[in-house]
Specification:
7 strands, 414 residues, five-stranded mixed beta sheet, alpha+beta, two-stranded antiparallel sheet
Length: 414
């Protein structure tokens, strides 16, 4: 079998140790911080933790493989072969977990994960088989009798699998962001670019260790940004909260089209206090969650749906021919009617809506206009509700009176 070894350089063991110890330390700090901050562990927390633990293990394994390279003690060659096989295998596993993690962050759908990620694991399983085979037959790398490590051109396959998973995860997030009009607080490019550069540097220049310190840095930046998610997202509805509203408005005003209008809707659930008092607060929570889903479904252009506070929601978007203010309001009322008719909501839902146009120079007027128009619509709702209740009461009194008349009439004729 012909071996084509890639050009190897001198190992700078001191630099390798420093880089990987730094990576290990970053992950240790993150894990200690998470341990004291989170009490309830969700699946995405577990996946993130597994990636951090894997990164720590890989930092140690990489130090060991570089240290043992060229050593002449008994069993050193076996350790070199086994350590490098483990390193390539765990690298592919880490990238697979990264893709798995991003999918769950986007969709939170276990059924989807079970359906697709068995197939998605095929490349990782392929790397596993090659790594096991490499213990007996040199495929991706080989270790000479002098215990020196050499890579073959086939090692590129492992890098391609790893890069492929990382790229697939990034594309998934960008596609989901565009499709769902929802931004995840996940700096995908901030994570991907250092990892790609670190992998490329180590692939081309054997003897340096840049991969796992880059991964540790990316995971640390990711953790910092996930804390923003806790600040900016409402835990009940998974919508943006009021903290994010002004940040989003300012960003949107800077990138809007020339002459474009930024519109906003302020929505208030009618009779929400009565819903809580009549059906209970759990039912009230379900109403808010259903309302969040309806607003996200109705907004079909880039924008933001925000839980403003209590039973109030704000929708922000740049007006387009596909989505005017009137069109969006009509869709919301139409989707509410469908929801009420289908029985998906625990009780009938209706909303009052006020619309305004955003002006960065006069933010207060924007919210004042929406609030004023929303309360005008709510006043009309309660007036109509009052008339309907009076009609219902009058009809009840009339039916009761007719019933009493029929009961008395036989006694008179008798």
């Amino acid at each position: 079998m012909m071996m084509i070894s890639m050009l190897e350089g001198e190992i700078n063991l001191q630099a390798v140790v420093i880089a990987n110890v730094l990576g290990f330390g970053l992950m240790l700090i993150v894990m200690l911080n998470k341990r004291y901050r989170r009490k309830i562990i969700t699946l995405d927390d577990k996946l993130y933790n597994w990636m951090c633990y894997l990164c720590m293990v890989l930092c140690l394994v990489e130090i060991a493989t570089f240290w043992v390279d060229g050593k002449g003690f008994s069993g050193a060659r076996q350790l070199n072969v086994g350590g490098n096989a483990l390193l390539y295998l765990l690298s592919a596993l880490f990238a697979y977990l990264w893709c798995f993690y991003l999918d769950y962050k986007c969709f939170s759908d276990l059924h989807r994960l079970r359906r697709w990620y068995g197939l998605a694991a095929i490349p990782a399983v392929g790397v596993l088989l090659v790594c096991v085979a490499n213990l007996f037959v040199p495929i991706m790398f080989w270790v000479g009798e002098d215990n020196q490590f050499y890579r073959t051109n086939w090692v590129v396959v492992c890098y391609l699998v790893t890069f492929g998973y990382l790229a697939a995860g990034a594309l998934l997030v960008f596609w989901h962001r565009r499709k769902e009009n929802k931004y995840l607080f996940m700096p995908v490019m901030t994570f991907i670019i250092p990892v790609y550069l670190g992998c490329l540097a180590q692939l081309l220049c054997y003897g340096i260790a840049t991969i796992w310190v880059s991964v540790a840095l990316g995971l640390t930046v990711l953790y910092i940004n996930l804390q923003k998610e806790q600040v900016y997202l409402d835990p009940l509805t998974a919508l943006y909260n009021r903290n994010y509203l002004m940040h989003y408005l300012q960003a949107l005003s800077q990138r809007r089209r020339k002459g474009g209008r930024i519109l906003g809707l302020l929505l208030d659930v009618n009779d929400f206090k009565q819903i809580n008092d009549t059906y209970g607060h759990l039912c009230g929570d379900e109403v808010l969650q259903q309302m969040a889903r309806i607003l996200q479904l109705a907004l079909e252009v880039p924008g933001a749906v925000i839980r403003y506070g209590g039973d109030e929601f704000v929708v922000i978007w740049e007006e387009s021919p596909q989505e005017s203010g009137q069109q969006l309001q009509e869709k919301i009322h139409r989707y509410l009617a469908v929801c009420n008719a289908s029985g998906k909501s625990p009780c009938p839902i209706s909303v009052s809506i006020g619309m305004g146009e955003f002006d960065l120079e006069n933010v207060d007027a924007f919210f004042h206009d929406m609030d004023k128009r929303m309360y005008s619509q709510k006043q009309d709702y309660y007036q109509k509700l009052g008339r309907d209740r009076r009609r219902a009461r009058d009809a009840t009194i009339q039916r009761k009176g007719e019933g009493e008349h029929h009961e008395i009439q036989p006694q008179i004729t008798h």
